[in-house]
Write a structure and sequence with these properties.
This protein has one domain (3-178). The chain is 69% helix and 2% strand. The protein has helices at 3-30, 37-49, 67-83, 91-108, 112-122, 132-137, 139-155, 165-178; strands spanning 126-127, 130-131. The chain is globular, with a radius of gyration of 15 Å. The two termini are 30 Å apart. By secondary structure, it is an all-alpha fold. The protein is built from 8 helices and 2 strands, in the order H-H-H-H-H-E-E-H-H-H.
């Protein structure tokens, strides 16, 4: 097993374990009126992704089903900081997630720019009938959305992730096939 595979197999279970907490942290970004709009937009897009019925990897697939969600959260944080390096009080929250995106980039290699493009498009996306624009502009929709995120985060159960190199091959294969 090479060093990159080993690092991925060590980190991915941790990302799955903290996904509910990560969602809560991103929700605080959306709820921070001092955060730049571009940062809030990336956070809303990433969280809206959690509720997409057709995401890149179906949540029901053991070992891999929520890793795409964890990837989207981290790439969104990296892109947000790329646009607004000084995101105010949210900089530390985003930086911790954004630093993890470097491992995703190393693992996905030439596929990573496609993931970045996909996450960028989420800023204008829709899930469960609500757009990112509506989440940011309408206080009632934002409150409902943030409550839904809180409910999701509190009921999220960490899925299994077997420390097996085959999971990395399957993961990269899924993303290579599914990303536009």
């Amino acid at each position: 097993m090479n060093d990159l595979d080993s690092r991925c197999l060590d980190r991915f279970p941790e990302w799955l374990r903290t996904l509910g907490d990560d969602a809560t942290l991103l929700a605080s970004v959306i709820d921070d009126p001092a955060a730049p709009e571009s940062v809030r937009r990336y956070a809303a897009g990433a969280l809206n992704y959690l509720f997409k019925s057709l995401d890149l990897i179906s949540d029901g697939i053991e070992d891999l089903g929520f890793l795409d969600d964890a990837f989207v959260v981290r790439v969104a944080a990296a892109l947000a900081l790329g646009e607004a390096p000084e995101a105010g009080a949210q900089t530390a929250t985003l930086k911790a997630l954004a630093d993890d995106a470097k491992l995703i980039e190393s693992m996905l290699d030439s596929v990573y720019p496609r993931l970045e493009s996909y996450v960028m498009r989420l800023r204008t996306g829709t899930a469960r009938g609500r757009t990112v624009d509506e989440i940011l502009a309408d206080e009632v929709i934002r409150r409902d959305f943030l409550n839904e995120v809180a409910g999701w985060a509190s009921s999220y159960e960490t899925p299994t992730f077997t420390r097996d190199e085959k999971n990395l091959v399957k993961l990269k294969s899924f993303l290579t096939t599914q990303l536009p």
